[in-house]
User: Which sequence fits this backbone?
């Protein structure tokens, strides 16, 4: 098989788009010189792709309907049995539908990708199965993961098991709903701006965004490599720590990983909080969108830590108020270049590329009208900035991210944890089908002010339920130094053991 050669007209058009001015004879000269390059492409085309072997048998599964999928949280149900006898034996797992599972459909919440079937497993898949887990299928997520609420998937909204008609949070919406409903013990979530922690808060479960690079992202559809994270979502702290033990560590295929520090996370569970120094971050409260009962519940949780022996004090981190503003150019321009123009893979990094996903996702260009409105808004802003400012603000925001990181680290040098609400509000109603564009976008993007900054800095953060108000969960977020997940688990486990959060 040979790679199709360009026509004279195609090269002339490319030259014009690149700002080159060439006479037809000059184009012909260049075309003659292209033969050896395209011969190399022929060689690459003839070789088999180098992707990991699929170890565990599975079936493509099926799409459940009706009572079997009452919250619209499942995309595909299947069953893949792991090795018996591991630390996750007896535990059931759902994968967010941006995680590649070979032979099982994957649409990442997007109509433009529906029908795609991956040819490889994400690194975390065999790690979970090697540890004895049983994977039960794929959970719906938001349209290319671009929403903090649960109404943007092409397959319809995901409902909160605690209150039908309300958001379960996003973009790991199905993962949170399945754990909250007790249909699985554990789920994989992804987090670029809060997409593990937001649905954990709305659904009353535990969701950890690990230190950037602690868990390999290999085989998960990227949005923007510098803010991509995946992590565990569970009903208990112990299961969360156990799941992280199974997933963490280098795989040699993910450039997001830079000498991650692996620790025995479950050993921290009984450590308690006596002597821990917890900083209540003033700027995480009293936001324009904050609900007073949410702020109050999280402050009560801080007092509970003090009664358990922690030293709790309020601090001010003024840079926190600028964190989401710094995150926006990175997230928007980064996703436009990597996920959209780069057809999910982009360029200029070493590791495992999913060529099958790249090929399937490239079809979005012919169906751009079908993209979600939250994604369209992000793309329009990003394309304008890239066109008119040449990536200047992406670059400047990446530079400012180090200033933001240093601001948090300065406080973490004197404290063990930062504490604030995960999101400023409780679960919101799912917008109706005829919702205005303004409401649709508001519900998708209003939840980020406390979560997104830590995607930019890479610090580990966990959302833990700390009470109920009006029948809906309230989440508190704890943040630690890089690779200090054990302290997050020690604090979350101590709070969990101090009383049933549903009665607080």
Assistant:
């Amino acid at each position: 098989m040979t790679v199709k050669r360009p026509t004279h007209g195609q090269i002339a058009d490319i030259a014009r788009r690149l700002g080159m001015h060439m006479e037809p004879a000059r184009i012909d000269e260049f075309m003659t010189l292209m033969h050896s390059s395209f011969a190399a492409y022929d060689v690459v085309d003839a070789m088999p792709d180098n992707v990991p072997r699929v170890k565990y048998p599975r079936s493509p599964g099926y799409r459940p309907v009706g009572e079997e999928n009452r919250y619209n949280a499942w995309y595909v149900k299947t069953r893949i049995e792991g090795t018996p006898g591991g630390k996750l034996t007896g535990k059931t797992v759902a994968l967010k539908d941006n995680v590649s599972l070979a032979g099982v459909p994957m649409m990442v919440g997007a109509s433009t990708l529906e029908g795609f079937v991956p040819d490889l497993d994400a690194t975390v898949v065999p790690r979970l199965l090697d540890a004895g887990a049983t994977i039960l299928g794929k959970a719906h997520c938001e349209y290319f993961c671009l929403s903090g609420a649960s109404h943007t998937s092409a397959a319809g909204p995901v409902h909160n098991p605690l209150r039908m008609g309300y958001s379960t949070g996003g973009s790991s919406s199905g993962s949170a709903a399945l754990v909250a409903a007790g249909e699985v013990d554990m789920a994989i979530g992804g987090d670029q701006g809060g997409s593990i922690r937001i649905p954990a808060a709305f659904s009353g479960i535990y969701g950890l965004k690990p230190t950037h690079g602690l868990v390999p992202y290999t085989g998960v559809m990227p949005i923007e490599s510098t803010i991509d994270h995946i992590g565990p979502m569970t009903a208990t702290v112990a299961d969360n720590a156990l799941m992280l033990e199974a997933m963490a560590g280098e795989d040699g295929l993910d450039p997001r990983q830079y000498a991650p520090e692996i620790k025995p996370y479950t050993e921290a569970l009984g450590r308690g909080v006596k002597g821990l120094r917890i900083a209540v971050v003033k700027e995480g409260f009293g936001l324009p969108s904050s609900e007073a009962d949410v702020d109050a519940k999280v402050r009560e949780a801080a007092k509970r830590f003090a009664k358990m022996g922690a030293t709790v004090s309020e601090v001010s981190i003024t840079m926190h108020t600028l964190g989401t503003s710094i995150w926006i150019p990175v997230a928007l321009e980064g996703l436009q270049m990597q996920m959209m123009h780069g057809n999910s893979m982009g360029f200029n990094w070493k590791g495992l590329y999913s060529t099958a996903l790249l090929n399937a996702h490239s079809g979005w260009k012919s169906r751009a009208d079908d993209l979600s409105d939250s994604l369209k808004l992000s793309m329009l802003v990003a394309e304008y900035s890239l066109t008119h400012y040449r990536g200047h603000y992406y670059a400047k925001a990446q530079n400012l991210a180090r200033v933001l990181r240093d601001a948090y680290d300065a406080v973490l040098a004197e404290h063990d944890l930062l504490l604030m609400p995960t999101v400023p509000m409780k679960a919101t109603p799912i917008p109706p089908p005829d919702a205005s564009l303004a409401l649709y976008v508001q519900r998708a993007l209003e939840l980020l002010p406390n979560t997104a900054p830590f995607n930019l800095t890479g610090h580990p953060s966990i959302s833990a339920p700390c009470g109920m108000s009006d029948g809906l969960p309230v989440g508190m977020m704890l943040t630690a130094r890089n690779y200090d997940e054990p302290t997050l688990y020690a604090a979350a486990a101590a709070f969990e053991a101090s009383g049933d959060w549903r009665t607080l």
Remarks:
- The domain at 66-503 is CATH 3.90.1300.10 (Amidase signature (AS) enzymes).
